[in-house]
Write the structure tokens for this entry.
Amino acid sequence: MIIKPLSLSSVFNDSSIDKGLLTIADKVKNNERLTEEEGVLLFEKGALGFVGALANHIAERLHGGKVYFNRNFHIEPTNVCVFTCNFCSYSRLYKNKDEGWELTMEQMMDMVRKYDGQPVTEVHIVGGVHPKMNLEFFCELLSNIRAHRPDLHIKGFTAVELDYMIRKAKLSLEEGMQKLKEAGLQSLPGGGAEIFHPDVRNVICPDKVDGDGWLRIHEIAHNLGMHSNATMLYGHVENYGHRVDHMSRLRELQDKTGGFNCFIPLKFRNQGNDMSHIAESTIVEDLRMYAIARIFMDNFRNLKAYWPMLGRQTAQLTLSFGVNDLDGTIDDTTKIYSMAGAEEQSPALSTEELCNMIDSIGRIPVERDTLYNELKVYNNDAVTVD
Ligand code: V47
Ligand code: SF4
């Protein structure tokens, strides 16, 4: 079934729309930046159809009908973690490490070797912050992967993991990042950002790197020529002002460095953590979140819906609300979201399934690499994958 979102012109013909929202629609038409106040107004008053029409207009202006995905897998070295984020269903404290996992170098290299001869282009490394897995260990992992599979792009370690391992090695952030880059690190994933504002951060994840620290590490990575992603964990105790503040700070850094590849709103999932009493956001609120991110983040070309967290059906819906990227095939190599109650208990999609998700709503599937270079455009009606 082809989904046809509302056009931007239909918004101007609707006499019931608030004046402030019409000013925003005008700005979108003229490709102008929104203020933070306008961002909050969109959250407070923008109906789903309205924000969807604006977001879809922007996505089509940037990407035509193209939707990106990649072929990737994850390595999660451990879920043992020194931090105590209240939303996390995945980690185990060091004193309870027997309930968790700690992969050895050999086990991780076996995971890499499993993909020998397969056309995966990216490995995403992310995990808990283990007090005994240090900078040296991870540099060795990076060089081993680089030596075994030089064509695989290594996207690894959140700013939270990096901050801890570099400080523990008693290096400056610049020195630590340089060392990791030399060992083979090419990009940073967007995790650990959560909500930057201290009023929220001190409630949901008080003991890990703060918002300024997260941004600083990404700025250093960008200055070293690496790219990175940015996330925002939404739908818990934050208000709309906190979301806009978070996006605004990312927008500011992107103006400065241009180093972010994409923005990824992450929906809070409430099973098995200390915030289980908080209801999850509705699908309507999720779609509004994606659409408003697309409208507000005018210097981020790519907006990603991470399907293992949203579930494939909601992820497919986001493609009509400004999203142009679905992440990757994953191959059942991540546990972060299945442990938090996501629909996808063993997340894996074949390239064919991803292409069909995109093609069946009238969009064009495009396989990309980590840096959004196009590898293959699947523009036939019947998608066949080699
Ligand atoms: O920082 C943890 C989130 C993140 C929960 O860069 C939760 O391409 C919802 O950032 N409910 C780590 N979210 C994963 C991540 C990521 C994932 C996919 C792609 C990329 C990328 C980055 O997972 C954490 C936290 O924000 N998270 N627990 C939870 N209960
Ligand atoms: Fe540790 Fe990351 Fe979980 Fe926080 S979100 S407890 S840093 S694994």
Summary: The first helix runs from residue 8 to 12. Residues 87-89, 126, 158, 189-192, 194, 229, 231, 233, 264, 266, 268-269, 273, 306, 327, 336, 340 surround V47 (ligand 1) (CB under 6 Å). The mean pLDDT is 94.
